[in-house]
Design brief:
The protein has about 550 residues and is an alpha+beta fold. It has helices spanning about 5-30, 35, 65-75, 160-170, 175-205, 205-230, 285-300, 335-350, 415-420, 530-535, 540-545; strands spanning about 40-45, 50-55, 85-90, 100-110, 115-125, 150-155, 160, 235-240, 250-260, 265-270, 315, 365-370, 380-385, 425-430, 445-455, 455-460, 485, 495, 500-505, 510-515.
Length: about 550
Amino acid sequence: MALDPIELQVIYSRLQEAGATMENQLFHSGYSPILRESFDGSAAVLTRDGGVVSGTGAPIHLFPYFYIARAVMTRWGDRLSPGDSFLVNDPYLSGNFHVPDTAIVTPFFHEGQLVAFCASIAHKPDLGGIVPGSSGASAREIYHEGLLFPAVRYWSAAGVAEDIEAMIHRNSRSPKDVVGDLRAQVGCTRVGCSRLEELFADYGAAQMTEAFEALITGTEGRVREGLAAWPDGEAEAEAWLDNDGVDLDKPIRMAVRVEKRGDRITFDYSASDPQTRGPVNLRPQSAETAAALALISFIDASIPLNDGCRRAIDFVNPEGRITHASHPRPINNYYPSMHLLYCCVQKALANFAPQKAVAPAGLGVGGCLIAYARSRAGKLGVQYELMTPSLGGTPRGDGSFAVLPMSQITPSQPIEILESEYPVEVIGFEPLTDSAGAGRHRGGSGYARTYRVLEDASFSVRMAQFKNGSWGVVGGDAPNRARCVLNPGTPQEEQLPPLATRDLKAGDVIRMELAGGGGFGDPRERDPDLVAADVRDGLVSPQAARAVYGADGG
C-alpha cells in the first residue's frame, strides 16, 4: 500500500532531524580544527544498497557515499553484524575523493535484518604520507598520500579495534586529532542508528523501505522534470588547469560535452587531457559529483540531494583521463581540479538554461598546511586550513564573500583558534581592493590572509590557477588571480607555484591571496549607489569606479 503523503513528509522530517543530530554530534565532538571549525565533514542515512536517502554537512560528500557503502558490502558481504562500524578511505576501492577524506560506515539492523546504513565522512589533518597533512606537491603515486584503509572493521560490539588505532597512532603526525575525529564519526553514526531504530519501531521495515524509495524517487522525478523543460541538444565547454605541479609549463585541458535528450542528460569527459604525473587527477566519484552538483544548481537548488540525482544522469569517462585516474596515480589535490570541472560543466549548461547562468567563484581553491614540531600543547601539530575564495555574481545579486564553492558551508578557521592552538600569528586578514570581477552584479571580493610562524615549520600549499583565473559571464569581468608569497617585501621574497613545499624558519611570513568571484552583466549597468558603497567600503577604488563602472568615484 502506497504511503500517505503526510506520513511520508513526517518520516522525511524525522530523517532530517536525525541528520541534524548526527551533524551536531560530529562537529561538536570532533578534535581537529578542520572538522570542528571548518566543518569539513558530513553524515548521511543510506539504504541497504548504499543509496543516499538524506544527508547533511558538506554537499559534495553526499554522492560518493554510494561507492563507500558498496566498498564495505563488497569486502564484508553477509559478515556484517550489529555493533560494527567500518573505516574506509581508499579512493581506488571506494568513493573517497582523496586519502584524508575518511569514512565511517555503520550498518543498521532491525529485527536481525540489515535494512540501512548510517555513515560519515570527515577530512583528517594527517594520515601519514611524505608531507604533513598527507597532501604534498611531490606525491607521484597514491602510496605517497598516506595510510589506505580498504573497509576495515574499526568498531564491533566488543568495542574499538585497538590494533587499528595503534597503527594510526604510529603513522599520523596528529594522532590525537585523527583518532578523536574517527571516534566522533562512529558516535554520530550510532546516534543516527538510534534515530532509525525509533522510526523503524514506529513504522516497520516494509513501510520505511517504501519511504526511502519514495524520497529517492521524488528527487529523481524533480530532476527529470527539470531536464524535460530544457531544449534537447548538445553543448561543449573547456577550462585549463595551470599545470600538474610537475610539468610547470604544460597546462591541462578539462573538457565536457553535454548531451540532453528528453528527461536524461549525458556528461562526456572523453576530450579531457590524459592523467598526469602530479597530484591533480580525479577519480570518477569526483568527476560525477562536480557534474551532478552543477546540474542541480541549474535545475533547482532546493532539490534534496539523494541517490535520485544520479538516476537521470549518464557519464562517459574513459579510464586514463585526468577525470578518471588509474591506480596508482596521485590525487591529493583533487579539489581545485574538481571545482574547475564544476565551473566547466556550468559553462556548458548555460547553453540549455541561459537564465540560470552564474559567474564562477574565484579559482585557486585548495589548502594551506603548516606543520610544527611543537604545537601550543607541546606536541607535533598540523595546521590544516581550507583556502576559500569568494563566489561569483548571479542574476539576483553580488557574489558572497569568502564562501567555499560547491560545499558552501566550510568557513575559514577563526584567527583566535589558530593562534591558541599553533605557534602562529595571523597578522592580516582583509579584502583586496578591485579584486572582485566587475559586473552589474559583481563577484565577492578576494582577500589576503597573512601568517607569521613563531617556530620553525614545514609549509605546503596545495592550490591551483595562479595563471588561469576565473571569468565573468553575460558581459561581466574576470576577478583577480590567487597567489602565495613567502616573506613579501623582503630580500627573501618568493612567489610560490600552486603546488609547493618549503621549510620555514621562525619569523617567516606567508601571504595567501585568494581570488574574488567573476562578475555578472555589464559593469556600467550597476546601480551607482552600490558602486559608491563599494568605494566607501574599500572594495572598489575611485579610479575603477570611474573607468570600469562609469560612476562617480567619490
